[in-house]
Structure formats: C-alpha cells, structure tokens
Amino acid sequence: MVPVGTMPLCYVIDAEVHVPSGLKSTKTCHDSPSGQLLLGIRQFNAAQWYQCHETLELLWMVASGDLRHLYQGIIQLAIAMHHWRNGNFNGAISLLDGGVDYLSKLPQICLWIDVAELITQAESVKKQLEELGVARMAELEPNAIPKIMTVSV
C-alpha cells in the first residue's frame, strides 16, 4: 500500500507496468553507465546473478527503448546462469535465448558494454550446455561462464 500523498514508483494496469513520466530514464546507449548499472555488472561478473537481477530490475522499470532491451537482456542472462547453477537446464537454455534476443536489438556497444561480445559468450555457453545435456550440465567449464566486458569510449 502506498501512503496517502505519495506517488508509487510504478503501477500495473492490465498486466502492463506503468512508470510516471518524471521517473523515466532519458539515457541512451551513447551515455555513460550509471553507478547502479556498474554495480549490476560487478554482481554479474562475480556470479551474484540473482543480486544482479534485483539491481538491474530497478533500472529496467524506468527505462525505455534500447536501454530497456539492454537491462532485460542482461537480467535474462543473469537468471539463466542462476538457473544453470541450480540445475534447471531448461530454464537456463530458455533464458539464454531470451537474453540474446533482447541484446540482438542493440548496437554493438551500449552504455560502454560490449554487447556483441556478451551475445557471443551467451551463445557459446548455450551451445556448451546443450552439448553437455541435463545430466552433465554441472561440468560446464568455469571459463565458459559469460562476463560483461566494458570498452573505452
């Protein structure tokens, strides 16, 4: 419940999230990353995938356009890896596909993130998981786990 006289961060109408226009982000892919995104990247790269999801979800809620796709793509990759670690093969494969789909809509670099490299890594880990199969998915090589790389601009 939202206290009287305050405005909720977002609200849902007919299963669609709405954010008041004053809270929407005006950033574009050409801008520098926020501190919160940098935190999410550190969490992702430290295999703190669920925490990364929580951190980036706050950014995703107020984003639109390319940045919404970026955050959604990273969130889906993070949860895919969370599923892999917890033994959910189908969840991992499905969310790796979903994350790549979102990231594929973006330029190669967005908010200093090497999106093209992240897509390549996600596709590679998916291929390796499919080759290992459900029974051997825990044998995934540690160097196969995707890392978010940033670039100099």
The CATH class is Mainly Alpha
> Over the alpha carbons, how many angstroms does the gyration radius reach?
16 Å
Spell out the helices and strands N to C: EEHHHHEEH
Strand content of the residues, in percent? 5-15%
Number of strands: 4
Unreliable sequence segments: none
Largest sheet: 2 strands, antiparallel
Helix percentage: 40-55%
CATH architecture assignment: Orthogonal Bundle
Q: Strand sequence of the main sheet, in spatial order?
A: 1-2
Number of domains: 1
CATH fold descriptor? Hyaluronidase domain-like
What is the terminal-to-terminal distance? 43 Å
Task: Give the key terms.
two-stranded antiparallel sheet; 5 helices; 54% helix
Structural features, described:
It is globular and about 45 Å long. The N and C termini lie far apart (43 Å). The mean pLDDT is 89. The protein has a two-stranded antiparallel ribbon with strand order 1-2. A two-stranded antiparallel sheet has the order 3-4. Strand 3 and strand 4 form a beta hairpin. The protein has one domain (24-144): Orthogonal Bundle (Hyaluronidase domain-like), CATH 1.10.3450. It is built from 5 helices and 4 strands, in the order E-E-H-H-H-H-E-E-H. The chain has helices spanning 35-45, 49-62, 65-85, 89-103, 115-136, and strands at 11-13, 16-18, 109-110, 113-114. By secondary structure, it is mainly α. 54% of the residues lie in helices and 7% in strands. Helix 2 (49-62) runs antiparallel to helix 3 (65-85) and helix 3 (65-85) packs antiparallel against helix 4 (89-103).
